[in-house]
Specification:
Blueprint (H helix, E strand, L loop, with lengths): L3 H13 L13 E6 L12 H14 L2 E6 L4 H4 L10 H11 L4 E5 L7 H7 L26 H19 L3 E5 L15 H14 L4 H8 L26 H29 L5 E2 L1 E2 L8 H5 L5 E5 L1 H7 L6 H6 L8 H9 L11 E6 L17 H11 L2 E7 L24 H17 L11 E4 L2 H9 L8 H14 L4 E4 L10 E4 L7 H8 L4 E4 L28 E7 L5 E6 L6 E13 L7 E7 L5 E6 L2 E4 L1 E2 L2 H12 L12 E6 L2 E6 L5 E2 L7 E6 L3 E2 L3 E8 L5
Helix pairs in contact: 6-9, 7-9, 9-16, 14-15, 17-19
């Protein structure tokens, strides 16, 4: 038999020899954990061996094969500038983990600069809020992405030391932690202002007149004479120019990407084979995943279904919050899985890691309930169904002090097993042994839903109606698609559209000529939601009015928009599917002009009160001019491309996704749900049964299916 060291060496050789494009498509499904040895006196030589031995035993018992550590432990090495760096403790922990063997994911600790760095740099380091408050030391993420001094004088050194010392031990590097969390992506300090000015100068070819013209700065006499005069858009008297905000949002995302790339370059200077990731936040509309994703080898995100449900006040109804309070919304985690897996527009859907999976109550929401029994099992299998290959639980042991003392873990603060331990041991591990018998490739989805950061930015800057929220609109379209049983990829507008049955743009505010050219040659169906094509790249109304560049695809014009308060609804009558149907619209209503001599465009829906166009169709393109209901989108998609054989089973709290030859049926309901038979096929159950238990998963194959 192979020794643990040889086993680890073999595993590392396999991992490092796989290219990012084809990486891990046939990796076994596995578990991970976030480990914070510095929080449990493991660097106290008198307690190290006993505590470390207990932790290693837990990791072994749960068959955990990936361990993330060190992303918050800079202070473990040196507490002040003059102290020598103490790697002895980390060396022992790394050695112990390798004895299992385990893949180590090491975080670069730039999210928590120690106090001596703050003392040294202070205003050159600390971020400033939109309201001009300095955000001080005493928590985490207390730095500005624009601080060159921080990067050059401190980040470079610690990253270089870590990679030089541990490059043979680490299989994946996590850059920083949750880039932009706690509202730190956009900072308003002097460094950010200076770099924003440089960013604008580069974008506008050092031509301030060009920028003034494109920004429309003649309005209110807002012309600038020099780029050095352009301040940040906060703290103005009335409303700042929307393009000023938009460029600042774009710049801020670019700064985070630049910070990530800076550390990646240091790692690869010293280890050309270094593989990197960064753990995305769920439902992040600020950091552009697609510009960051091209720099990553592996995608990962942090999944907290209960916390997000509780703090999201717009997207989820009061009824949904009540109904799913201890499970999370059935489409929340799935949406993020489908988004993160497609983070690089230049690569097809990829396997990914859930870097932090909620293990029990969290500490940061308004209310923090315990997950219903079985939900850890459901969340894990749902992630695997959506092409995750690793689900890593946060965290190994609860810490009894500081900000997250209420945040649960696999072990209680005294080291005893918590509920998560038993659910992993008794439910998840047996399921993985069963599932790993099967080949589970990562495959392109049936439908692409396009998520666009410029649209998210522009709607948040200039909503024109308080109820028009980008993520809310996107989620309506996503839920409709998922209810029809489709596998969905959430992609950038620049992605390759080849192979999709349908492209769905909940809205695309600022389409480019490049995207329109690609769409013109796309042979499938394309659906646009309201406001698509309504602005140029520089946040102005197109010269030929909305839908701007989309005029090349559809011959209509939007002449007026009306935003409506809650409770003011209207009816739309449509002629889809060969029969007349009526749907309700709300929040947003556009006035569309279709010329009598327009060729090829057809009005397929009208506002019932005015009989004016509400839905238009030309060739394979359709445009909806109002805020739609989920059921209406579902009907359009059914009428356009049909539905899968799973549609009858993807309703209420039941969701189904296919991976390889296996179908995963996730039941978010508090009672058992009977799966409807699939016409013409035999259902062979791999896990569970036809009646899916409450808060559980059944996995099946379809056999002997009759054609036609």
């Amino acid at each position: 038999t192979m020794t643990p060291a040889l086993q680890l060496l073999s595993l590392l050789i396999i991992i490092l020899s796989i290219s990012p494009t084809t990486q891990s498509h046939h990796q076994p499904l596995s578990l991970g954990v976030c480990y914070y040895p510095e929080q449990h006196s493991l660097c106290d030589p008198h307690r190290l061996n006993q505590t470390l031995s207990s932790h290693i035993q837990t990791i072994q018992q749960l068959n955990i094969s990936h361990v993330r550590l060190f992303e918050f432990a800079w202070g473990l090495l040196n507490l002040d500038e003059s102290s020598s760096k103490n790697f002895q403790c980390l060396d022992k922990i790394v050695t112990a983990l390798h004895s299992l063997p385990t893949d180590i994911i090491m975080g670069t600790p730039s999210a928590t600069p120690p106090r001596f760095i703050v003392n040294d740099l202070y205003e050159k380091l600390l971020p400033v809020s939109q309201h001009n408050h300095v955000r001080k030391f005493g928590s985490r993420r207390h730095y500005s992405f624009a601080s060159e001094e921080y990067k050059e004088e401190y980040v470079r050194g610690i990253v270089k030391e870590l990679v030089t010392r541990y490059h043979e031990d680490v299989s994946l590097w996590q850059i920083d932690n949750e880039l932009g969390d706690h509202d730190t992506l956009r900072t308003y300090d002097a460094q950010s202002c200076n770099q924003f000015q440089q960013w604008l100068r580069a974008k506008y070819d050092s031509n301030i007149t060009k920028m003034n013209d494109l920004w429309g700065n003649v309005f209110w006499s807002m012309q600038y004479e020099r780029f050095e005069d352009v301040e940040l858009p906060n703290l103005v008297v009335a409303q700042a120019n929307p393009i000023h905000w938009l460029e600042f949002y774009r710049f801020s995302s670019d700064q985070a990407v630049k910070f990530h790339e800076y550390q990646t370059n240091i790692l690869r200077e010293h280890d050309p084979k270094a593989r990197v990731t960064s753990n995305y936040l769920g439902w992040d509309e600020k950091l552009n995943h697609y510009t960051l994703g091209i720099h990553q080898d592996v995608f990962s995100w942090d999944s907290y279904p209960l916390g997000i449900l509780d703090v999201s006040d717009v997207i989820f109804s009061a009824e949904e919050k009540r109904r799913f309070y201890n499970t999370g919304h059935p489409d929340f985690a799935a949406w993020n899985h489908d988004h993160v897996a497609c983070s690089d527009p230049n690569r097809p859907r990829q396997p990914f890691i859930v870097m932090e999976q909620q293990p029990g109550p969290v500490n940061w929401a308004k209310n923090n309930p315990s997950p219903a029994p079985g939900m850890l099992y459901l969340w894990a299998l749902e992630a695997f169904a959506h092409s995750a290959n690793v689900v890593s639980f946060f965290r190994l042991q609860q810490f009894p002090s500081a900000q997250e003392q209420f945040h649960s873990a696999i072990l209680l603060s005294n080291g005893e097993p918590d509920e998560a331990y038993f659910e992993i041991r008794d439910k998840i591990l047996p399921a993985l042994r069963t599932l790993n018998v099967y080949e589970l490739p990562v495959e392109q989805g049936d439908v692409a839903l396009i998520f666009d950061y410029d649209s998210a930015y522009s709607i948040s800057i200039l909503p024109q109606g308080e109820n028009f929220r980008y993520m809310h609109l996107v989620f309506i379209f996503y839920k409709a698609l998922r209810s029809l049983g489709f596998n969905i990829d959430i992609v950038d507008a620049k992605a390759d559209y080849t192979g999709y049955k349908m492209l769905v743009f909940p809205t695309l505010i600022m389409p480019t000529q490049e995207v329109v050219t690609k769409l013109a040659s796309f042979k499938g169906h394309v659906l646009f939601g309201p406001r698509s094509g309504s602005k140029t790249e520089f946040f102005s109304i197109p010269p030929n009015l909305a839908p701007g560049y989309l005029h090349q695809l559809m011959d209509f014009t939007v002449t007026r928009v009306s935003s409506l308060p809650e409770g003011i609804d209207f009816k739309v009558q449509s002629e889809l599917g060969g029969s007349s149907t009526v749907t309700m619209g709300k929040y947003w209503r556009e006035t569309i002009r279709v010329k009598p001599d327009s060729k090829g465009i057809k009005v397929v829906g009208v506002y019932e009160d005015t009989k004016s166009p509400a839905i238009v169709k030309q060739r394979n393109f359709m445009y909806i001019a109002f805020w739609p209901e989920e059921g209406f989108i579902r009907g359009i998609v059914q009428d356009t491309i049909g539905e899968t054989s799973l549609a009858d089973n993807a309703s209420n709290g039941l969701r189904i996704r296919k991976r390889g030859d296996l179908y995963f049926a996730m039941n978010y309901e508090a009672s058992a749900v009977e799966l409807q038979p699939i016409k013409g096929c035999t259902m062979e159950f791999v896990l569970g049964k036809q009646q899916v238990d409450a808060h559980s998963v059944s996995v099946f194959r379809l056999l002997n299916c009759l054609r036609g």
